[in-house]
Design a protein that fits this description.
The chain is of the alpha+beta class. The protein has 29 helices and 37 strands. The protein is globular. It binds one RNA strand through helix 10, strand 11, strand 15, helix 14 and strand 31.
Length: 922
RNA sequence: GCCCGGGUGGUGGAACUGGUAGACACGCAGGACUUAAAAUCCUGUGAUCAUUGCGAUCGUGCGGGUUCGAUUCCCGCCCCGGGUACCA
């Protein structure tokens, strides 16, 4: 009997379920290990073969760690708030909760079929009120906190209030940058309303009038992280800038810590680099330039204060508030037109033609603080209102954008760092000696920066300053299917709902669309109020629930806390996190932010959510094509298509095997192909192929269910790992799956022998031979090393070699097969369980212990081996391959022999690597 | 433009700290078994030349360098993938 994966897999999945095999509880006697996957959004399309890739890897690792004696937390859940369910609801009127529930059910089935060892008792769903109650609770904590820049952490708002009472705010920076200072007396005199308004400028969750990314088609605002190339990340709809009252989270206060703590975590370089760029720290100085004939001063930010003597003009962003005040009457019209145009250009347009240089002279002049020369003030849209101070001192000689602007408008260019040829291009490098710069002359750029900042500070015209690119995260969404923000309004001011009244549940609405006056869908709900006051009608963004879910898994059913301190202290942080790199500047930044915030308030004791992160690659689709001869129902095989005039048509990749079309299936695929005719090559129809994104419309979606039906879950698991390195993106190609399928069958045959027509279990109790032990221990060593460095593809190869060698040795010995089965079980859990039972064990293999390898069996025993001479020609040395230290000594003594082999030439130098002669130099 | 990552057979990919390049698998070719097919097993498979046996030469994107020895390290260039985009 061949291996019947269908009955075996069902049998063990049932067994695991009935015995609750994957449930984990806190066990102080064992070290913990937390393996986490990024949880999926349960879409209507179900899983395709690309989705489980990361889950298979994490499952292998989790099972491996379990066998190594760790108490492993390996949970799964659903990121179940999101746009598709809502859009479906808008179209059909069906409540998103219902579609979401159905989709989750389908996902769960698919995941179970693959045989994952998730602890489903800990399942979380972000759209479950029992879960989002705590998301709302964290929001309230954010609202009730401020960032103390002296202690460098978040503190309860009460500490700020008492500070105001005693000292006012003269000694504290205002995070929002507004300079309205007050004394303690003034604070006490303020009305409650005024006090609350001031506190809003400090709260980590705050509402403010701000320029936001508005997506009219989605009808909602988006965070910077959700906008890519001027269009929404989801759906690709255009995004425009708009001023709106918005909830935001003050992530910018955490910029430095988010940057610094990247050092201590084991994430990929590219991902850390993306986060660094996103945070965008730049060191420099803020300098004030007086505007000639007025009391105004233009404040600029520059990273190159050393080049201040090269500043030949100033440029303001069109939106800069000073523009209107300093523009001279004769330029007013031109300038205001320019400002108007610039404001109305969408982000998209502005990005599309970065090369276009536009700007306008304002008629005003600034006074250079060191030379007292008058330098013209321009406006230009290459200066961004949202970064730095929205104004720059333009140094065309040493900044390529200023250079282009100066060239275009014929503004003088003054070289101050020697290095390039400024007649051709700007010299931006921070390398060279200062010239034409008064007291900076002769200094290197590095020293000049320091000296310039000193001089600027001494003169009282500015100070050294660090700027970050990262903006606060917009937190409100004008959508239905998200967590309600637990806030109500009294007297126009926001207050949070009492903790005991959480969760604020999503109200029923008649439609999932905005109201006629453009209010969010929640405004449709009847009596959506709290204690008679109106509740906030925007909801939280998709990333709210995912910013802390890893903590909820630790104690998923806790009714009184987001997780008990006992659970938090035991499980601490994620040891291995696997998920897609596309979350680099979204989820992975927010989850770090919330972790740091919760730590500041003392709820958890970790700085970072995940010690190690691995980004699995994307699996692309491999589309198949048939070629229809023009105006006919005749299809031409790929190799012959150039002889005809043909059109390529996507064909369902599931009726193509090894690029050969299943002609009968094709005829049945669609009515119109029923009578199709074919021009074949060697009696076969070869399809054309192309790598594209996996999508329904391209007919290249391969479902894991089909693969499991055909080859079994273990085969799918092995094959997905065998495809290549986990991090690599690659097209799905079913062609090679027979390899892993053969492997499983070969393994099965090791335990069975043919008895006539019948095959019977055959396991020998004889003691293994040296060769057999060598095969086993080699395999254990390699597999262990490979799992530990996440090289799952090579360990699958190792298994294949092992089974091939055991087959050659006809080895069916218990003593070999038992440990082999254990080390295989993370990869192919179903067959491993079956074999484990066959070997006579009543317990599940998950209770077994990962075997240790024994170095002794690995020593080579060959007696001649090839050695290079001068790195080229090879001779065979009659010496053991593996040498101990003493062996090397003696082998050196045998150099007479070597000399003989080298036709009498004596070796100059002998290179020994890993106790083995590699090369002889003569 | 800038910042990361990467270029190895017909294909996916191995080669861990510089030490026998191409493991393993797919595909292909030939053979065994079979009435036949499937399944299974065996042999070959980087290129060129020689195949009467041992073989010989070239070969990890291109050009150079370091080294007894380079897919691996260094310099210059080309190409591909990802991120980012006027961030002063």
């Amino acid at each position: 009997m061949e291996y019947n994966f269908k009955t075996v897999e069902k049998k063990w999945q049932k067994f695991w379920k009935e015995n609750n095999s994957n449930h984990t509880v806190i066990d102080q006697s064992k070290p913990k290990f937390y393996v986490l996957d990024m949880f999926p959004y349960p879409s209507g399309a179900g899983l395709h073969v690309g989705h489980p890739l990361g889950y298979i890897a994490s499952d292998i690792y989790a099972r491996y760690k379990k066998l190594c004696g760790y108490n492993v937390l390996h949970p799964m859940g659903f990121d179940s708030f999101g746009l598709p369910a809502e859009q479906y609801a808008i179209q059909t009127g069906q409540h998103p909760a219902i579609t979401t529930e159905e989709n989750i059910k389908r996902y769960r089935e698919q995941l179970d079929n693959i045989g994952f060892s998730f602890d489903w008792d800990r399942e979380v769903r972000t759209s479950d009120p029992e879960y989002y109650k705590w998301t709302q609770w964290i929001f309230i904590r954010l609202f009730d906190s401020w960032y103390n820049r002296l202690t460098n952490k978040a503190e309860p708002i009460e500490t700020l209030i008492s500070h105001f009472r005693n000292h006012g705010n003269v000694d504290a920076d205002i995070p929002s940058g507004e300079a309205d200072y007050f004394s303690s007396e003034e604070w006490l005199d303020f009305s409650e309303k005024r006090q609350q308004e001031i506190l809003l400028k400090y709260r980590l969750a705050y509402i403010s009038e701000a320029t936001v990314n508005w997506c009219p088609i989605l009808g909602t605002v988006l965070a910077n992280e959700e906008v890519k190339d001027g269009v929404s990340e989801r759906g690709g709809y255009p995004v425009e800038k708009k001023k709106m009252k918005q909830w935001s989270l003050r992530i910018s206060e955490y910029a430095q810590r988010l940057l610094d703590d990247l050092e201590g975590i084991d994430w990929s370089d590219s991902l850390k680099e993306q986060q660094r760029n996103w945070i965008g720290r730049s060191e420099g100085a803020e300098v004030n330039f007086k505007v000639h004939g007025t009391d105004f001063a233009i404040e600029v930010f520059t990273t190159r204060p050393d080049t201040i003597f090269g500043a030949t003009f100033m440029t303001l962003a069109p939106e800069h508030e000073l523009v209107e005040m300093i523009v001279t009457p004769e330029y007013r019209n031109e300038v205001m037109n320019y400002v108007f145009e610039a404001k109305n250009r969408s982000e998209r347009e502005r990005m599309a033609d970065v090369k276009r240089i536009t700007g306008n002279f304002t008629g005003a002049y600034a006074i250079h603080p060191f030379t007292n020369e008058k330098i013209p003030v321009w406006i230009g849209d290459y200066v961004l209102a949202g970064y730095g101070t929205g104004a720059v001192m333009s140094v065309p000689a040493h900044d390529s954008r200023d250079y282009a602007f100066a060239r275009h408008f014929k503004i003088p260019i003054q070289e101050v760092v020697r290095g390039g040829n400024i007649d051709v291009e700007s010299y931006d490098a921070k390398d060279g000696k200062l010239i034409n710069s008064d007291f900076l002359n002769g200094l290197s750029v590095k020293d000049a920066i320091k000296k310039a900042i000193d001089a600027i500070e001494k003169k009282g015209i500015g100070k050294g300053k660090i700027n970050f690119r990262i903006r606060d995260a917009v937190f409100g969404r004008q959508r239905y299917w998200g967590e309600p923000i637990p806030v109500y309004y009294k007297d126009g001011l926001p207050f949070t709902v009492d903790e005991k009244d959480l969760p604020v549940v999503l109200p029923e609405v008649d439609k999932y669309l905005p109201t006629e006056d453009g209010e969010p869908p929640l405004a449709r709900a009847k009596d959506f109020s709290y204690k008679g006051f109106p509740l906030e009608t925007t909801t939280m963004p998709g990333w709210a629930g995912s910013s802390w879910y890893f903590l909820r898994y630790m104690d998923a059913k806790n009714q009184n806390q987001f997780a008990s301190s006992q659970a938090l202290d035991y499980w601490k942080d994620v040891d291995l996190y696997i998920g897609g790199a596309e979350h680099a500047t979204g989820h992975l930044l927010y989850v770090r932010f919330w972790t740091k915030f919760l730590k500041d308030l003392g709820f958890i004791h970790i700085d970072e959510p995940a010690k190690k992160l691995i980004n699995q690659g994307m699996i692309q689709g491999r589309s198949g094509f048939v070629f229809r001869k023009k105006d006919s129902n005749v299809f031409i095989s790929n190799g012959l298509k150039n002889n005809y005039e043909t059109t390529a048509i996507h064909v369902d990749i599931n009726i193509v095997e090894n690029d050969i079309l299943n002609i009968n299936a094709f005829k049945n695929w669609r009515e119109e192909y029923k009578n199709a005719e074919f021009v074949l090559e060697d009696g076969k129809y070869f399809c054309g192929t192309e790598v594209e994104k996996m999508s329904k419309s391209k007919w290249n979606v391969v479902s894991p269910d089909d693969m499991i039906d055909k080859y079994g879950a273990d085969c799918l698991r092995l094959y997905e790992m065998f495809l290549g390195p986990l991090e690599l993106s690659k097209p799905w190609n079913t062609n090679g799956i027979t390899g892993t399928s053969n492997f499983i069958r070969k393994l099965w045959r090791l335990f069975h022998k043919q008895n006539g027509a019948e095959s019977v279990i055959s396991i020998s109790n004889e003691s293994p031979t040296k060769d057999e032990l060598k095969v086993l221990h080699k395999t254990i060593k390699k597999v262990k090393e490979d799992i530990e460095r996440f090289s799952f593809n090579t360990s699958v190869s190792t298994f294949m070699i092992c089974v091939n060698e055991l087959t050659d040795l006809k080895c069916n010995k218990h003593a070999i097969l038992e440990p082999l089965t254990i080390i295989l079980s993370p990869y192919a859990p179903h067959i491993a369980e079956e074999l484990w039972q066959m070997l006579g064990h009543a317990d599940s293999i998950t209770k077994a212990v990962f075997p240790e390898f024994n170095e002794e069996y690995l020593i080579e025993s060959a007696f001649t081996y090839p050695v290079s001479v001068n790195g080229r020609t090879k001779i065979n040395l009659p010496l053991p391959l593996s040498l101990s230290k003493e062996d090397i000594e003696t082998s050196l003594l045998k150099m007479d022999e070597v000399t003989k082999l080298l036709n009498g030439q004596s070796p100059k130098k002998i290179i020994v690597v890993h106790g083995r002669i590699i090369n002889i130099v003569i």
